[in-house]
Amino acid sequence: MQREGSPFTGLGPVFMKEFSDHLTSARMMVLMLFVIVFGAFPVASSLQQLRTVTESDPFLFLRVFTSAPESLPISFVFALNLIVPIMAIGLGFDAVNSEFNRRTLSRVLSQPIYRDALLLGKFLGSLATLAVALTALWLIVFGAGLLLLGIPPRGVEVARAACFLLVTVAYGGVWLAAAMLFSVIFRSTATSALCALGLWLFFFFLWPMIASAITTGFAPTQFRSVDEVLGVEQLGSVLARLSPGTLFSESVAGLLNPETRTFGVFANYMLERSPGALPGTPLPFDQSLLLIWPQITGLIAGMIVIFAAAYVVFQREEVRA
C-alpha cells in the first residue's frame, strides 16, 4: 500500500509538543542548573586570571573558553565536552520507549501522523531544546566576559564563538541521536539510559587508550624516515577521530585557538620548522574553517547516520494498542 500525502504530515505539532514539554519539565530545569553550575566554575576562574593579563592579545575574549586556570585545571571547552553528552542523553533516552510503556504510541499513530514525522519531530524538538540551553549558556559566558574584562569582542571573535556554538549543538546532536536509538531498541528506559551512558563512557575514557594501544602495535620498533613517523601519527589520529569527543575537541581547537594550523604533535613540529613558517601567527577565519571542515562534517554525518539507524529500527517495529 502506498501512503497518501507527505510523510512529514504532523511534524509541526509533534515538534512543538516535544519542545514545550522539555522546556517546562523538571528534568530540563535540573539539567540546565547542572550545565550552568558546572560551566560557571571554569569561566569564573578563567576570567579572574585573564583580568591580570597585561600583554596585548588580539583574541583575549576567546581565551575565556579555552584557558584552564591553575586553581581549577579544567577549561570551559573541556567542561562542555563532558556535560553536553549527559544533557543530550538525558533528553533522549526515553523519547520512544516511554510512549510504549504508557501505551500512548498507538493512540498517537492513529492520528494523521506518520512514524517519519513522529520520530523526526521528537528528535528536532529535543535538539531545539538542547540548542536553547547551550545558547543561554553561551550568552551568559559572553555577558560575564563583557562585564569582567571590560572590553568588547571583535567581529572575528564573535564569528568564531558563534561557530563554536553551532559545533557544540552538532556534538550534542550525535549523542541525542544515540540516546534515541537505544530508546527505540529497548523497551526499558533504564536500559536505554545505561547503554547510552555506557557508550559515552567508552568513547570518553576507554577509546583513547585503545586507539593509542593499536597505534603502538602498528608502529615499527625503529623509525627510518619522517614519512613513517607521520604515517603512524596519522593512523592514531584516524582511530581517535572515531570518537565524537575527539572531533569536537579538534573543531573547537581550530576555532578558538587561531594559532592552530594542524593537528598532531609531530605534524606541528615539522610545520613550525618548515621554510617560511611563522610560529604563532593566527590563521584567518576562513582558513580555520577549512582546517576543521572534515571534523565538522564527521559530527554532522555521525548524527545523520545514527538517526537513520534509529529510523530504520523504528519503522520495522510493531505497534499494538
Give me the count of strands: 0
Mean pLDDT: 84
Q: What is the N-to-C order of secondary-structure elements (H for helix, E for strand)? A: HHHHHHHHHHHHH
Annotation field: number of helices: 13
The helical percent reads: over 70%
Overall structural domain count: 1
Described by strand count, sense and barrel closure, the largest sheet is: none
The fraction of residues in strands falls at under 5%
Radius of gyration: 22 Å
What class, by secondary structure content?
mainly alpha
Flag low-confidence runs.
none
The gross shape turns out to be globular
Report, as a whole number of angstroms, the end-to-end distance.
Answer: 21 Å
Question: What keywords describe this structure?
Answer:
mainly alpha; 321 residues; single chain; 73% helix
Write up this protein.
- With about 325 residues, the chain is mainly α.
- The protein has one domain (about 10-315).
- The protein contains 13 helices and no strands.
- It has helices spanning about 10-25, 25-50, 65, 75-90, 95-100, 105-110, 115-150, 155-185, 190-220, 225-240, 245-255, 265-270, 285-315.
- Helix 2 (about 25-50) packs antiparallel against helix 4 (about 75-90), helix 7 runs antiparallel to helix 13 and helix 9 (about 190-220) packs antiparallel against helix 10.
- It is globular, with a radius of gyration of 22 Å.
- It starts with 10 loop residues before the first helix and ends in a 5-residue tail after the last helix.
- About 35% of the residues are buried.
